[in-house]
Amino acid sequence: MDKVLVTGASGLLGTEFCTQLKNAGSYVWALDNHSRSNTIPECDVWVNNDLNDPRTFEALPTNFDYIYHYGAINGTTNFYKYPNKVLTNNFVCDINVFNFAARCENLKNLVYASSSEIVADDPVSPVPENTDVLIKNIHNPRWSYRLAKITSENFLANSNLPWLILRYFNVYGKNSKQGHFVGDQINKIQNGTFSVIGANETRSFCFISDAVSASIHMAKNTSKEVINIGNDAEVRIGDAVRIIAKHLGHPDAVFEELPSVQGSVANRRPDVSKLRQRMPEYNPISFDEGMQIILSKE
Question: What is the distance between the alpha carbons of residues 53 and 58, in angstroms, rounded to a whole number?
């Protein structure tokens, strides 16, 4: 039986990881500080502590087989509103986890949750893993999250740890929080606000269970690589909000289309050919199917 540590275990990805890992027979330690969610996921051992505090790691065993590091301040709204907090918190958490992982002598893989934000300005679409990182305006508050991820990827790539970097492209699920596109739009529509920012932009949305099952497969079979995790089917943002509205009972809703925010990219689509080579059965569901699951009243 694998012994697994999941950080950020109360978040969107973390809770799904705990569920799938438990169902697969792993012994799961779940760690979160409940800063954004009070969820206690399915697990064998629950730890309510802060990754910013080095003392958190003093109480943890060092015989983990896998560490899934998903603890971070996320959400586009937070990037703009609290950039220094996002940058500092996320990088300090990462370094603390990496230093702890170095003490785990039998560790098979440290799985690091990176992000498509790293390659946000790349003109190539779909964007592969082995692409240059371009930043048009390094002082844009949006890049607070991105800069921490870039630095941590560099740290891992130059470390002796058994690492796996997974870059996620617009993952969503039933527990998507406000501050993210899906959570924000559901909340706005439920409150009678029919507006959308950046309607002509496109994104490639990936349903949570697809993203996590692919991640666990990669963790078991791949190390010291960067892998894109996502859905390579693009959806126009203006069409995405109408899909959400349809499943909320507003099929004929008319949306006010507002300008994009500073730094928001025109499109975001992953090249998932490397993922499909290693997991030929990977077949993510569509955004319409995913929203039907999330918003079903049954």
Answer: 10
Helix/strand/coil (H/E/C) assignment for every residue in the chain: CCEEEEECCCCHHHHHHHHHHHHCCCEEEEEECCCCCCCCCCCCEEEECCCCCCHHHHCCCCCCCEEEECCCCCCHHHHHHCHHHHHHHHHHHHHHHHHHHCCCCCCCEEEEEEEHHHHCCCCCCCECCCCCCCCCCCCCCCHHHHHHHHHHHHHHHCCCCCEEEEEECCEECCCCCECEHHHHHHHHHHCCCCEEECCCCEECCEEHHHHHHHHHHHHHHCCCCEEEECCCCCEEHHHHHHHHHHHCCCCCCCCEEECCCCCCCCEECECCHHHHHHCCCCCCCCHHHHHHHHHCCC
User: Alpha-carbon distance 192 to 96, whole Å?
Assistant: 43
Beta-strand relationship, 226-229 and 206-207: unpaired
What's the whole-number mean pLDDT along residues 138-142?
A: 93
Spatial separation of the C-alpha atoms in residues 85 and 71, rounded to whole Å: 14
Question: Is the pLDDT reported for residue 121 higher than 60?
Answer: yes
d(CA 256, CA 199): 9
pLDDT of residue 298: 44
Give 4-27 pLDDT, tens digit per residue: 999 999 999 999 999 999 999 999
Query: Dihedral of the CA atoms 60, 64, 67, 72 (nearest 10)?
Result: 0
Q: How many CA atoms lie within 13 A of 177 on its CB side?
A: 17
pTM of the model: 0.93
Strand pairing report for 195-197 and 256-258? parallel
Which residues share a beta bridge with 31?
Answer: 7, 47
